[in-house]
Amino acid sequence: MKSSSVFFCNSCGNEFAKWAGQCPACHEWNTLVETAPFLKTAKTKTGQKVSIKSAESFTVKTALSSQTGYTFSTGIGEFDRVLGPGLTKGGVYLLAGQPGIGKSTLLTQLALNSKITVVYVCSEENPAQVAYRIQRLSSKANSHIRLLNTSTVENVLETIKSDPNCLVIVDSIQSVSTATNPTTPGSPSQIRDSASYLIQAAKENSVPMIIVGHVTKDGDIAGPKMLEHMVDTVLELSGDRQHLLRLLRSVKNRFGPTDETGIFRMNSAGLEEVKDPGSILLEGRVKNAPGSCLTMIMEGTRPLTVEIQALVVASPLPIPRRIAKGISGNRLQLICAILTKHLNLPIATKDVFVNVTGGMDVKDPGADLGIALAIVSSVKDKPLPENSICFGELGLLGEIRKVGFTDKMLKEAKALGYSEIFSPLSHTSIRSIKLG
Known about the structure:
Blueprint: E1 6-9, E2 15-16, E3 32-35, H1 60-66, E4 71-72, H2 77-83, E5 87-88, E6 92-97, H3 103-113, E7 117-122, H4 127-137, E8 145-148, H5 153-162, E9 166-171, H6 188-205, E10 209-213, H7 226-230, E11 233-238, E12 245-253, E13 261-267, E14 270-273, H8 277-281, E15 292-299, E16 302-314, E17 322-325, H9 329-342, E18 350-356, H10 368-380, E19 388-390, E20 393-394, E21 400-401, H11 406-415, E22 420-422
Parallel strand pairs: 6-10, 6-11, 7-8, 7-9, 9-10, 17-18, 19-22
Antiparallel strand pairs: 1-2, 1-3, 4-5, 11-12, 12-13, 13-14, 15-16, 16-18, 20-21
């Protein structure tokens, strides 16, 4: 009897007739797993054939007129900032993040703010747990929220068909399964098949759908990579669990921008929107302290003021340490090399520690100058000028280069009242900045 199984790559999503140690398409090792082939005409375990809705045809004019009011607000300003126009009817959104970071809390708040019926698929938690969280976050009436106690995709499809004017939240894609696939929930082929049926139902019925996805220990979304290609928008909720701030970013967005960031603060009442992140990030800052530098970075299109701290001490080790928190370790090594070469800074035998306060993870190259000035300030044991701020990218030749939104950051710095601004517009190289 001929085998009906195929081998599926967890990394790129391609299928192959036989197993190999290395994927022939993406060349990753040990990513091929044996799965059942995905067939839209497959039957369920009970022998019932999966129905497929007939296609509709539109002209450009009728298509545009039919989409009137196709977007609506989530009721959460920071969420709308990331999405762009808000939620889109027929749009499928994948929300991923580390365990305990606040994904379910955020979606519960979204459900509470929704103006339409919300179908919350309780596949990981039982309805009582979700109901308790709803009650804890709000005492208002929540009769528009329906808790669907199932982990079967077919039950979700029936619910969507019976009431297409709703918002569907599936928590999570790794815990639901379709009867057309005999593999266990969470397997690559099961995630692929379940997501395909859910997306098909969302598109055909113009139902907005939010799917929660787990992440691996490396921070990647669990399951096949093609899951990210199948959905319309991929959202990432990140942050340090030991700190209060949570950042919502859009990795992929077919309906809006991918360069915006929503900022929230975790408290007993859930996730609170943060309109002025600088006030939280600079809370408790010691002024006029050596090794402390205020720098301006861009989170999406929003300028933020963060504090970068540096500590340079004599090293007891033959190879001095370069330890960074909130920035890349390689980036710190690079900046230390630039300072040694162009300022003759005596740090070759010293340990250098750099920290971005508030639990922020800074990737903006505009923070280079702030890191460098914090290190110089610590080495010389002299504080930076009072009421000063900086931003700019450092080149290997010691030059200070412009970064994106330079004019916007300069305008924001002046509006906040900083009297001395170190930037590519005021200084051309790191050598030209004199700290005394």
